[in-house]
Amino acid sequence: xxxxxxILMTALLxxxxxxxxxxxxxxxxxxxxxxxxxxxxxxCHGADGNSxxxxxxxxxxxxxxxxxxxxxxxxSGKRIDAVMQGFAAMLTEDDARNISWWLASQxxxxxxxxxxxxxxxxxxxxxxxxMDRQIPACAGCHSPNGAGIPSQYPRLSGQFAEYTVxxxxxxxxxxxxxxxxxxxxxxxxxxxxxxxxxxxxAGLR
Length: 205
What we know:
It is a single chain. The chain is mostly helical. The model is unreliable at 4-20 (pLDDT under 50). It has eleven helices and no strands. It has two domains: 30-104, Cytochrome Bc1 Complex, Chain D, domain 2 (Orthogonal Bundle); 116-202, Orthogonal Bundle (Cytochrome Bc1 Complex, Chain D, domain 2), CATH 1.10.760.
């Protein structure tokens, strides 16, 4: 009978062999990403990923893994948006990868909060949540300065308040269904809380 150590070693070797056989992830091509972005995305999201239209998000400096996930989910229909689904349908997985990594290499322009009272309320929610209603602090996943956590949680700092409101409302009403955590959080928030958090996020640096 094999010893436990021998069985464990066999399993580890098998896992290593399987990983070695797996195809390598293609390396992003930033030049192709820039070209594809200029063809498909620039009209809505700005020349360098900094949108000038509040309902169309700034994408510069966003985590590339997050961007790629969103593009592929628009393409598959997991995330619904008539305009974005049309554009994403034209992209291959390599296109999505190249565009995402190119956008991540661009510098995001700073945003600005607009309502002092909303900002103070938004800061309380963003940093501390609303414990009696089990609304967690946004900072726990998106970091205190809104930088997010690469490959897990998106960068939020400086994003247009109007766009953030739109997304939180979409999570709340179920029209955006590609993140269950955010659906659960937004479901507990009222309109004023959503607007307050969004305005605070717009001013984060």
